[in-house]
Amino acid sequence: xxxxxxxxxxxxxxxxxxxxxxxxxxxxxxxxxxxxxxxxxxxxxxxxxxxxxxxxxxxxxxxxxxxxxxxxxxxxxxxxxxxxxxxxxxxxxxxxxxxxxxxxxxxxxxxxxxxxxxxxxxxxxxxxxxxxxxxxxxxxxxxxxxxxxxxxxxxxxxxxxxxxxxxxxxxxxxxxxxxxxxxxxxxxxxxxxxxxxxxxxxxxxxxxxxxxxxxxxxxxxxxxxxxxxxxxxxxxxxxxxxxxxxxxxxxxxxxxxxxxxxxxxxxxxxxxxxxxxxxxxxxxxxxxxxxxxxxxxxxxxxxxxxxxxxxxxxxxxxxxx
Length: 321
Description:
The chain is an alpha+beta fold.
C-alpha cells in the first residue's frame, strides 16, 4: 500500500482519524429501565476508546470498520439537537467522503435504531436492526456472527449490561473476528440524566489488550456488581440495618470469593456489631492472604472505622489460621 493510500485511511478531512478498526458490536436501549449501552470486541488495541459512545438521556453509538471516530461525538450532538437515530445515521453518512467503507449504528433515547454497513466493509460484514437494538460486524470469520448476537440479546435476561455481554459472547462463539481477539469494552448510561454527570455512567469497562477480552470483560462486570453490593452494605450500615448490610456483604463475597478486601470489610462490619466469634475467622483468613491487612486494622480505630475495645482489637490483631 502506498503512502498516499495509507494516509487516506488514517486521516480524513480536517485530520479526523480513520483507523481500520474491524469489529463486532451492539448498541441497545433497555425498554424497562431506559438505560442505553454499547458493547464491542475487536482484534485491535483499545477498541473501546474509539468505537463506543453514549450519553445519558441521549443515545448510544458504535462507529467502526474503516472508522470515522467523529461519528461518535457528532452523532451524540445531533441526537441532543433532537434528531432521531435514523436521521443521525443519514446525516453522518451523507456528510462522509467514504461512506462505502464505514459501519455505524445508533440508538436514541426513545429506542429508535438505525445502522449502516458500507458495501466495501470487509466480509463477512452486515448488521441487524431489532426492536431497541442493532448488532453489526465486519471482517468476521463467517456470516453467523451478527445473527447469533441478535438472538442472544433477544433471549438474554437480566440488566442491560449483562445482556450486551451475552451478545458479545454469542458473536465470538459463532466465529468472531477472523483475526481473533484482543480488546473489548462495555458502556452503559442512564436513560435520563440525574443532574449528577458522575453518576450517569452506570458501567464503563474496558479491556484494552488481552487474550480473551470478552471473558475478562465478563469478569470485570461481575466484580463491579460485587462492589455495588458492597456499597449497598455500607449504606445499610449507615442506616443501622445490620441484617441488610451483612446480607449485601455476603452476596459480594460470593461473587468475588478471591477478593480479600470484600472479606475484610465484612469482618469489620461483624466486629462493629459485636459478632466477634464470626469476625475472627474472617480476619484470620484475610491476614493469611496478606499481612498488610493486619497493619491496616491497627489504623482503623483512630479513624472511627473499627469500633471495638482494646481487648477485642488485640484479639483481632493476634488472630492467625
